[in-house]
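ok so I'm stuck.
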Amino acid sequence: MNYIIVDLEATCWKTGTDPARQEIIEIGAVMLTPGAAQPMPEFARFVRPVNEPVLSDFCVSLTGITQADVDGANPFDVVFGAFVTWIAAEPFTLCSWGAYDLNQFRVDCSRHQIALPTSFERHINLKKAFAQWKGIKPCGMKAALEVLNLPLEGKHHRGIDDARNIAKIAQAMLPYLRDYGGLSSPTDYSSKR
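replied:
not stuck anymore, here's the structure
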């Protein structure tokens, strides 16, 4: 079974940011195959927002994603289709740090009148699972890396960089998650961030 570690970046503003208003501007993902010797395959694409196509200064500063990056990208329906094709093999479990990413996929699929694949509902909220594994309160990805003595690599709040970092955490958690039952059954461990 493959585990798709995904991290999304979306339009955002210093005030007024709401998932219903936000649009995905980057899909970053790492495919984790337990026991695989080869490097983990990655998916990294920018997405052109359509409702509010001009990025806020806050969004550019937070993510490092530029207006030129999204202007040169395909819209969500095209990029999401490529993402689903990239995942390809069944079965898989979608994993993200918190419930936001799965919920934002739902919002953007609805906005573009695309059916969210039912396989996406096999989702693990790694933030919640990590807290249970370590017996701590839910924490951010950066804090979880510190708990595991792993370096934060790349730029925080860039989808592909965060997906890579979350994949390192997931790799460390695999034995726990197998016993926990999360990675072997279609259970949703999502909760609000």
